[in-house]
Design brief:
Two copies of one chain form a homodimer. The first copy, chain A, is α/β, with parallel strands linked by helices. Helices cover 45% and strands 17% of the residues of chain A. Chain A is built from 34 helices and 34 strands. Chain A has an eight-stranded mixed β-sheet with strand order 15-25-24-17-18-19-20-16. The first copy, chain A, has an eight-stranded parallel barrel with strand order 27-28-29-30-31-32-33-34, surrounded by five helices. Chain A has a six-stranded antiparallel β-sheet with strand order 2-1-3-8-6-7, with helices on both faces. In chain A, helix 15 packs across helix 19 (555-567). Chain A is elongated, with a radius of gyration of 35 Å. At the A-B interface, helix 25, helix 27, helix 28, helix 30 and helix 31 of A face helix 25, helix 27, helix 28, helix 30 and helix 31 of B.
Chain lengths: 915, 915
């Protein structure tokens, strides 16, 4: 075995080493004293199964795991991450080589074949194995062990010289690329040239007899380019390949590549060296992959495909149709029943072991099934939930484990309509997935027309180049929105997401011709009234009506959320001001309202006119008169919210934005609005100019406005209290009203507003004879409020963290203006993430923790929650749990996500505290 | 003595009390066991001298103090603040009355006169005495002790019935007003009626024989109005007066009045009861006041005036000319030499005792000098410094005590030109003191004309209704500014203050007629070219040229500031970007520059064109080309700053404001500017619109801009380093350059900018062969920067607290927009003060303390300073001292104030730590 056919070619492989290895082999000194540089696996099991993916890489771990389970794995060994590091540093080379030699010996024992053996030839596959899925992973080297001599042996004993030479040729090309860094295209060119020379049409015409000639040309190409001979020593081939993989992995280019893609530049690499098995043989051979479950539904039914006389890459290339695994005459089940049974049993064993659905690659070589790799199976969220639900039912895992297995954000898939899984789809364009959900309807180009048709009971998709504020009423009635221009933050996208309507934005291959009333795409013309379907979760636009599945919080999903509710400590509320949103949120399990922004109530219908009258009035009396017109409609709004949230708290924020937001902007129709208000346009313009601010975010708003115009507080408090009294009279149940004062920075501000609220409560109590059940609290949304929380808590029964504003002031970054640089900041790693999306734990988080701690000093048992948009972000929710908040509040469609995220946070915290 | 002439009138005065008092008197049981409700003073000295103004009020304290010193004080006693509280609460009435009776007995013993004694009549003055100067202090009641009987005794034994009845009449009016709350006008009307009846021309014709009749009418008026008889019992008169003063003081109206004027509503009141002395007698009698020193200069020369045959109020009314105390035949010194000597000696004794210049009121009654009150003398700041300097020279106080005696803000008086003290002034108008300092010059109505005339070496006062930006170049050359419209924050006022030019604003009695070329006032017309003088410290406008004294930091002032420099721990730097400002600040003792805002350097002359080219450029190359034009001029600016501040650090802040500040605003001449830039106006407008921000304060500025356009950092750093290298070559001394990065919220930002700065430094080092002496640090002006200070300090060699921005973000208040509500906030007490003027210690201060503590954890010995406008506010400086900052930096004219404030802070802190 240690007789090298071309011993004159030995360059780096050490003769002494071979002797040492022989000695070791003779004495069988595979003792603990020798550091274990590699983990061997094969029929006997596996040495390193316990080391895990951190040492073996994912592929290496899977192979060891399967070998240990007794599944048929082509035998081999894994050079660990630590070993690869040593190789990179040029350390312990002798000892590592020694172990490789020994490992190859054991491989020979198991297979009866040896590296370099003319007759019983062992060929090797050398593959990178990384601990995590990483970008730009290196290529594998296959068919290692072929040289000018062994290829002839393979030709002779396989009886297929064409096959042998093709293997050799491919190996040379592969080696040139991976080890020498040559361009594979040069070899492809050589091949094309040869085909041309021979007058062939395609590579399939290459004959066995051409093999030797082509291989020679490949070898010359390599040797000419690299100015060195192709190594005929097979051990040298192996070592060079290993070293090349290690060097390539640690090269500056690979590191930069990983860094650019957000991965760890210093990630480790293990290397799998494994006997080759050949599915590309005519008899009872082929390649395939299989999953233990259905990827859409999660049902325990094996899925997969199989391609006879093929290797793995052929399956991926899809040059021929693959066959199903089960059911039917042409299935694997029928073709090679033994292999099929072994495959099914192996998958089941693997799933039981991993307690998760798995997906494997396999090869069948002359009837023998080989397991090549195993990974967690791909799945939809519905499938993922079905899987963990099954595992819990089988007592394979606890509810808590099941909860931790699901990414909360993935639940979003289940909250919107989706296209029915097995329907035919005719995709006519793909735009941006701007607002999730799927809907079908008639193509309509005009918002007013949409309203009319919807009034007649029809379903409509509003199709516009882009939307403007005039289109809002159209979006409101449409089942979905399609725009041909604009991005994820375009008007249409933002509005549609706000309303929970499906929207595909920027489908730029489509052109609207409103004059003609057509929507044109490449080779396609649709007319107004034609049916289309938009899938806002994928960005697809489909012709005709496609069956849509409505979201349902039932079955396994409901059970799963029930476990989350049992597990979580924090309550989950919603941010909602309209009955429509409140209803959705309640159906999604919201336990009350955490933020009802009353300013939105001032815009609807005629209220805006009264609001403008208020702003333009010169005296408190006139302002009160204008506000009195708004009061009854506001009361109705509050009654609706109280009714929907019966039994749960409803937290209402008093007017927050600066007054100029209610007046027309420069681009609006000032003259028309002035006419409505029966005032001089000049007077209106003057007031608009008066109220203009340099930095409205830091301006005359929130509590500052409430202190300047106490009549606003009075009116809002009265509307709330009267609504509460009415609902209590009607239902016999007193609503729980929380009144929240925004933008407080000192206790005196809150004291002053609180005094008025209490006064109005007393008035309403006297008028109605009903005691009013209410709390007064404040937003903590300014750094000073967080710092002064102890003092402020003396006047506040609750705090709600307004983390949007708190982030703005803590960083000094206006969210409206941050687009210019925040992308660059996160791309360059200056900020680890956008602090408006996931809470900045180090800065804003510290302020929140101050406020929690100090707030409790000021008032034991003060109620604490978060109502910024972070309330729906799982990482931020984990922070809230750690900070001991009582609840999180988020937008309606985030409620189920928050329920799960809150449960995970509680579970992880309790695990942490156990350790 | 206890025989009451009209015992049937006794209402509230208890007979038993009199008996008890008699008993006490007999046994002389004036023991410690009896609570001391009052402090008696007289020839024997004083009982309560140690109690201080807190218990006795200022007047009471002064009287006791003088009595104890042996000065002649009309004897009497002080009811303490505590006693007055008891009286207000109706407590211990019996005991208090008891002590009053005893005190009156002792008074009788000393004076030989008794209350109610027909022959040896004692009359009393009852005066309020408050611990602090307070608004709306109550009136005194004089001549108490007169009734229908005693007035006759007084008439008989004084030999002047007219005098006696006038005293009685005035007492009735006085009593009616203070005790009964009647309107004094009713009595004035009665008097006028009487004069008319008698056919007199004025009150001086009233004869002694009319006295009784008039008194009777006054009494009837009182009794008719109040429906009760005027008390004839003199003890009752006294008690009722005391109770009325106490009640008046504690009434809701008085409390509200004090609150409205910013005083403590619950301030205490003591009451002085004292024998009357009469200066209104023909022989060797009169009233006057005197100060131990000259109020303007502080020289130890007695100042004051004297009016013969007069009482204090007559002196104030100035019906006759008063006489000087010293020098000349008509002076007090000549007229009553003994009294004069006693006065001088007394003043000197008082000054020595108080270790402060004093001012007293005195009366001379038939040759006998009486000291009536003593207060700290009024003084200019120059006088104040002369006084403490004298005291230190005489070893009466330490330097530290002297430093604590002067209000830092008062130093401002010494930093500007002032009108020479003893020159004649013809004031033609008074406007607002908009910018301190005095200057004379020709009246000029036009900015361009002003420039021409100043070019000819003339002095000019720019006179405008109000100024606009076009007038700035006129303000720049003028010696002073006068406007007839506008307030303290008008354009003219702000600009003039910024340039340190005297300005009187809003002198509305003056009218400008530019067509005529006249400035008219009531009965006055001045023409263009006429000389006027403006005093921006007082708001006076004077005709003609008035001698002006230039500020000088010499003599006692220099010595005084020298003590401050010895005493203080913190350094004082200045905020300056122009050589002009830097020079002023250096002369005022600035120890370097704490903030040089480089953006100002981009506006001057042609630089703004290059800056705009930079902003409009599409590529980094074009931006670098535009910046290259600015570099040489910037370098010259830095060279000038380094030269002026030789030996001291110069801290330069890299570009901070958002780019749109350098582009024209909507109202500017976009077409003209586009022409200058050789670009399409539409392109300019587009870029302006692109750069517009919702909240520029929280926008794309500071380090965010420097990261987007690293070429700006490169250019600025190069200009700084090249300037430093040049100055070192020229002077042989390396400047100390500190480069400051604004608006940092995380360390990564600073790291990135720092890297470029270090790179440029290395380049310049290579090019010049000179090592560059520089530090890199950051502003701490965002809450997050304060919280993350430990981490940031690892990349920063210094921190400078930008408290303007830090206040904005901590409170979430834009300084530009706060005017709408901050006034109301401070008026209502919601904020104790405007946090932009005096640092918010509770909120912003806590963040600063975090940053100090954490910054030192990150880098031991990190250099710490403040450069917000709070750096010139004494209260804020005290905070900086307590926080352990290394320096404060303020505007040039605040530097001496900061030097003193810093010294006071160090001294007070060390006193505190001793206790």
């Amino acid at each position: 075995m240690l007789e090298y056919p071309n011993s004159n070619l030995i360059v780096s492989w050490d003769l002494t080493l071979s002797c040492a290895a022989a000695l070791l082999r003779c004495n069988r000194i595979m003792t603990k004293a020798v550091t274990q540089y590699l983990a061997q696996f094969g029929k006997f099991g596996a040495e390193g199964a316990k080391l895990g993916a951190g040492a073996l890489g994912q592929k290496g771990e899977a192979l060891c795991e399967m070998a240990k389970l007794g599944l048929a794995v082509p035998p081999g060994f894994v050079l660990t991450v630590e070993t690869a590091k040593l190789i990179a540093g040029g350390q312990a080379t002798f000892e590592i080589k020694q172990q490789i030699v020994l490992a190859l010996e054991r491989l020979a024992e198991e297979t009866g074949c040896s590296l370099g053996d003319y007759k019983n030839l062992l060929l090797l596959a050398v593959r990178p194995s990384t601990p995590l899925a990483l970008p730009g992973t290196l290529e594998a080297v296959l068919n290692l062990g072929l040289n000018d001599e062994t290829v002839e042996g393979l030709a002779k004993f396989s009886g297929d010289p064409g096959f042998a030479h093709e293997c050799y040729r491919r190996f040379i090309q592969n080696y040139a690329h991976v080890v020498m860094g040559d361009d594979p295209a040069a070899f492809e060119d050589l091949l094309s040239l040869f085909i041309e020379e021979r007058g062939y049409v395609s590579a399939t015409e290459i004959k066995g007899s051409d093999g030797r000639e082509l291989t020679a040309r490949f070898k010359s190409q390599l040797e000419a380019h690299d100015n060195q001979v192709f190594p005929q020593d097979v051990h040298e081939q192996l070592w060079h390949t290993i070293v090349a993989l290690v060097r390539g992995w640690n090269g500056p280019r690979a590191k930069t590549h990983r860094k650019l893609h957000g991965a760890n530049a210093d990630a480790g690499l293990a290397i799998v060296v494994q006997a080759m098995v050949f599915g590309n043989q005519p008899e009872l051979s082929g390649a395939g992959h299989a999953a233990s479950r259905h990827p859409q539904t999660g049902e325990l039914v094996m899925q997969g495909e199989y391609l006879a006389d093929a290797q793995g890459p052929d399956l991926i290339a899809r040059l021929r149709h693959s066959l199903p695994l089960r059911n039917g005459a042409t299935s694997l089940e029928t073709a090679i029943p033994a292999a099929f049974q072994e495959l099914r049993a192996g998958l089941f064993k693997l799933e039981q072991l991993r307690r998760d659905a798995v997906e494997i690659d396999f090869t069948i070589a002359q009837g023998q099934l080989w397991f090549l790799d195993a990974k967690p199976a791909r799945r939809t969220t519905a499938a993922a939930i079905k899987i963990v639900a099954d595992m819990v039912r089988q007592n394979l895992m606890t509810e808590h484990e099941a909860l931790l297995r699901i990414d909360p954000l993935s639940l979003d898939q289940l909250l919107h309509s989706t296209l029915a899984p097995d329907t035919k789809r005719e995709v006519i364009a793909v735009g941006l997935p701007a607002s999730p959900g799927a809907a079908s309807g008639m193509i309509i180009f005009d918002a007013d027309e949409a309203r009319v048709l919807v009034g007649q009971g029809l379903h409509v998709i509003l199709v516009r180049p882009e939307t403007s504020p005039e289109d809002i009423k159209g979006v409101h009635v449409a089942d979905g929105v399609l725009t041909t221009r604009g991005g994820m933050t375009s008007h249409a996208a933002v509005i549609a997401r706000g309303m929970g309507k499906p929207c595909v934005a920027g489908a730029s291959s489509l052109k609207i011709d409103t004059a003609e009333g057509t929507l044109k795409g490449p080779g396609l013309t649709l007319k107004k009234g034609d049916l289309i379907t938009v899938d806002g979760s994928t960005g697809q636009v489909l012709k005709g009506e496609v069956a849509v599945v409505k979201p349902s919080l039932s079955g396994d999903f409901a059970m799963f959320l029930g476990w989350a509710d049992k597990a979580r400590r924090m309550n989950v509320r919603t941010n909602a001001e309209t009955p429509h949103d409140a209803k959705i949120a309640r159906d999604f399990g919201a336990e009350g309202i955490g933020l009802s922004r009353t300013e939105h109530m001032f815009f609807e219908g005629d209220r805006i006119i009264a609001m403008r009258e208020m702003i333009l009035a010169d005296s408190e009396r006139d302002r009160r008169a204008a506000l009195a017109k708004i009061l009854p409609v506001l009361r109705v709004d509050f009654e609706a919210l109280f009714a929907i949230m019966a039994g749960f708290p409803v937290c209402i924020r008093l007017l927050d934005p600066p007054l100029h937001e209610f007046l027309p902007s420069a681009s609006d129709d000032v003259v028309g609005i002035a006419k409505d208000l029966k005032i001089d346009p000049a007077a209106l313009r003057r007031r608009v100019a008066e109220l203009r601010e340099q930095n409205p975010m830091l301006g005359h708003r929130g509590v500052r406005l409430l202190l300047s115009y106490p009549e606003i507080t009075d009116m809002q408090a009265r509307a709330i209290f009267e609504a509460a009294a009415n609902v209590e009279r009607q239902t016999g149940k007193a609503p729980i009203a929380e009144i929240m004062v925004p933008l407080v920075s000192s206790r005196a501000e809150l004291d002053a507003v609180r005094k008025r609220i209490d006064m109005v409560a007393a008035e309403v109590r006297t008028e109605t004879g009903q005691a009013i059940n209410y709390l007064v609290g404040t937003m903590i949304e300014l750094p000073r409020a967080a710092l002064r929380a102890e003092d402020i808590a003396k006047a506040a029964e609750f705090f709600s963290f307004g983390t949007n504003d708190l982030t703005q002031t803590t960083f000094g970054i206006s969210r409206d203006d941050s687009a210019r640089f925040i992308g660059e900041y996160t791309a360059r790693g200056i900020f680890p993430h956008d602090p408006f999306i996931s809470l900045d734990v180090d800065g804003v988080g510290e302020l929140i923790n101050f406020a929690v701690e100090r707030g409790r000093l000021g008032r034991a048992g003060i109620h604490l929650g978060i109502c910024g948009e972070h309330g729906g972000d799982p990482d931020s929710i984990a922070f809230c749990e750690a900070s001991g908040l009582d609840y999180v509040s988020c937008s309606p469609f985030r409620v189920p996500i928050a329920r799960l995220a809150a449960a995970q946070a509680t579970i992880k915290n309790s695990l942490k505290s156990k350790h």
